[in-house]
Amino acid sequence: MRDLQLGDCRLHLVQGDITREHADAIVNAANSGLRGGGGVDGAIHRAGGPAIMEECRRLGGCLTGEARLTGAGNLPAQYVIHAVGPVWSGGGRGEAALLASAYRYSLRLAEEHGTASIAFPSLSTGAYRYPVDQAARIALRTVLDYCLASDGRSSVKSVTFVLFTADTLRAYEEALSELARARESGSA
Ligand code: APR
């Protein structure tokens, strides 16, 4: 399953490179220093050019579970939202709550800036080693709760997960099917 309509908000899963996404805002999997790195972070700064890093330097970092917004330089998006997910260290250090918080924070920032569409990568599941099956459930659940709670009042009408590998896409498809089944049976 790759699509789910939640009130007036559409949730969509695709495989691809987030730097090519034409969403109003794309989300970066950043570190708390906002200093750049490999993975999505490296790809976004490479494709977006130095203006994004100049803004990041002025922001002075970001706590884990939060996010900060900059312009998007040469990227087709209007904004980059730099979200800091947790490093996986076994699950007993509040990782699930921190991961959900990073998604929620990003959605709120997008809403504050009046954006209609936002694209996320799979936060924390690369260098930060969060198990992708668990991370996918948290990511999708957090977006679903946000869309349903905003009940049409948020500017955000489209949320796309741009997943880099076929395995990551598969994990998100399974998590989305599970969530949709739970909603139908009334347990979510
Ligand atoms: N588009 C979409 N997804 C991508 C792209 C891309 N261009 N490049 C990598 N990915 C995927 C990875 O395959 C993984 O599924 O993004 C997911 C997140 O991986 P990371 O980028 O490693 O992010 P994370 O696990 O949150 O680690 C963050 O890594 O790059 C550093 O500075 C960053 O220190 C921070 C840490």
Description:
Helix content is 40%, strand content 19%. Helix 3 (95-112) packs across helix 4 (132-150) and helix 4 (132-150) packs across helix 5. The protein is α/β, with parallel strands linked by helices and 188 residues long. A hairpin with a 2-residue loop joins strand 1 and strand 2 (9-15). The protein has a single domain, classed as Leucine Aminopeptidase, subunit E, domain 1, CATH 3.40.220. The protein has helices at residues 39-48, 50-59, 95-112, 132-150, 166-184, and strands at residues 3-6, 9-15, 25-29, 67-71, 79-83, 117-120, 158-163. The mean pLDDT is 97. The chain has a 7-stranded mixed β-sheet, with helices on both faces. It has 5 helices and 7 strands. It is globular. The site of adenosine-5-diphosphoribose (APR) has 26 residues, from helix 1. Residues 17-19, 29-31, 37-43, 85, 121-128, 162, 164-165, 168 line the site of adenosine-5-diphosphoribose (APR).
